[in-house]
Amino acid sequence: MTLELTITTQRGRLDKVIADNFSDISRSQAQKWLAAGLVTVNGKAAKGKEQVSTGDVIRLDPPKPKPLEAVPQDMPLDIIYEDDQVIVVNKPQGMVVHPAPGHPDGTLVNGLLFHTSFSGINDVLRPGIVHRIDKDTSGLLMVAKTAQAQVSLSAQLKAKTTKREYWAIVHGAFRDEQGTIDAPLARDPKDRKRQAIVPGGRRAVTHYQVLEQFPHYALIKCVLETGRTHQIRVHMASIHHPLAGDPLYGPRVTLPGAGQFLHARTLGFVHPTTGKFMEFSVEPPALFQKTLADLRAGIDKTRRVR
Question: How large is the angle between the packed helices 14-21 and 147-159, nearest 10 degrees?
Fold first, then answer.
């Protein structure tokens, strides 16, 4: 399926503009398509170093989809909504979203491939994963079933028009009931498994609000303006309110669980074809709710967990 993009405000190198506007297309993939003559600008063949600006029309003609290496697997999925364009799924804590080294199967993608069929996205037959949540984070994900949906949902994420609200249990007592953290994130130069606040990194903005305060913990709502890797986890740790149970950014003495207490509770977006705004909410998993109930009852099970 041909993909088309009209530049409105962004300008710069063509390969970078493509990668920035299509979340499922990497810059290296864009360069391969450019080298193969599969990209035009204003109807003319283009090169990766070419500069584009406002008004330019980029057209991509991806090659015929190749079979995906990921194997469809029959597994229970909590499908909140589905039509011919999109799926909204409630991912359980502990499930990896996409196959990767160390997690070749048992992922959300494996389950989705068994559940339904997808059109060619980024030259492979696979679900359009336009955003992800960490393995030990639970909650809502929107998944594109077609290239058209993938382009639409990716554009909404870039334009920051989607609604994404998370609940988290964090350490400490807050002086202010709400606030905003605006701090750039990048890979931690000292540890490649971690993200860190790094000058010159990608801008990241998290808005938080305290919903309930307990003696040593708090239930907060986080609204994402951007969606960087580990964003909420790093941002909250940076203001001395790390997520309870977080094995990377939190203390060793914390609430016992199955990783960080973080849940993608609310998700909203404009449907790719109907133009209707759709919003979905799901409650946190049982362990999260039980821990929250204990805190409300004055029961604090804090202990050394690693």
Answer: 90
